[in-house]
Amino acid sequence: MTSRVNKAVIPAAGLGTRFLPATKAMPKEMLPVVDKPAIQYVVEEAVNAGMTDILMITGRNKRSLEDHFDRVPFIEQTLEAKGDHEKLAAVRRPSELGDIHYLRQGDPKGLGHAVLRAKLHVGNEPFAVLLGDDLIDERDVLLKTMIEVQEKTGGSVIALIEVDPDQISAYGCADISAIDGEEYVRVSELVEKPAIDEAPSNLAVIGRYVLHPRVFDVLETTGPGRGGEIQLTDALQTLASAEGEGSGVYGVVFRGRRYDTGDKLSYIKAVVTLASEREDLGPDLQSWLKNFTNNLNG
C-alpha cells in the first residue's frame, strides 16, 4: 500500500480528571497553552505534516471543541471594525486549518476503541493518530518523518522517547532492534505500563502514531486489556508479530522538544517554556523569571 497519509485522527473524549476542577465545565483539550488551546497546537501539527482531513473522536461536554474551530462572525466583525487585523487573523485561523469532522466515541472503552471508531471515516488507507497530551515543538520534524517511514515499510509506526528507567511504568514500552542503514527501528514487543523490573527497555511510546488500516481488523478482535480498556498497544503488538500486508511495527526515536500537558506540573512547564520563547512575551518573562528564581534562592 502506497497511499499518501492525508487523514489524522485525534482522540478527544477523555474526561480530564487530573485537571479537576478546571475541567468540570471545560474540556481538557481547551486548556490554554499561552493563548491557544492545546488542541489547536495538535491540529496545526497535523496540517503542517500535510493532513487537512481531521477527525476528532469526542464525547459529552466537548461542544466547545467544535465551536473553537468554527467561524464566529460577531467577533470577526467587531475586530474588523476596530482594524485589529492581527487578532482577526488569529481568530479566523482555527476555522481555516482544514476539514475537521467530529464523531462521538460513545462508550469510554479506551484508546483502541476510540481509534476503531474512525474506521468508516479513514477507510482503507494509512492514517495518523495524534494524542493531545503531547505537544511537539513545531520546529522539530516528527510526524513527517513517521509518514516517510510508513511509506517505506508499509507497516505501522510509533514515536518513542528515552525516559529514566524509573519512569517507564507510566508509559507503553517498546523492545526494539536496529535496522542496518536506517535511523528508524523495528519494534518486536510492546508492553503497556510495565513494572520497572519487567520493562524491556527505557523507550516509551508517546502520542504519535502512523497506522496501516489493518489495525482496524485487529482492534475489532482485541479484548479489554490493562485497566479493562481496549488498548491500542495490544493491537500493535499483534501487528508487530504478524505477516503479510500491513504487518510490522516500526519506531522513530524522537529527541526533539516535547511538552507533556498531561499532568499539572508538566503543563505549567509547557506554558512557561513556550511563552518564554515568544518574541512578544519572552524578554519580559525571562527577566521576571530570573528575578523570581533569585528571590526563591535568596
TrEMBL record:
Reactions that this protein is recorded to catalyse: alpha-D-glucose 1-phosphate + UTP + H(+) = UDP-alpha-D-glucose + diphosphate
EC number: 2.7.7.9
InterPro entries membership: GalU_uridylyltTrfase_bac/arc, NTP_transferase_dom, Nucleotide-diphossugar_trans
Keywords, ordered alphabetically: Nucleotidyltransferase, Transferase
Enzyme class: transferase
CDD domains: UGPase_prokaryotic
A GO term for molecular function: UTP:glucose-1-phosphate uridylyltransferase activity
Record-linked Gene3D superfamilies: Spore Coat Polysaccharide Biosynthesis Protein SpsA, Chain A
Limits of the Nucleotidyl transferase domain: 7-275
Family (UniProt): Belongs to the UDPGP type 2 family.
Protein name: UTP--glucose-1-phosphate uridylyltransferase
Organism: Arthrobacter flavus
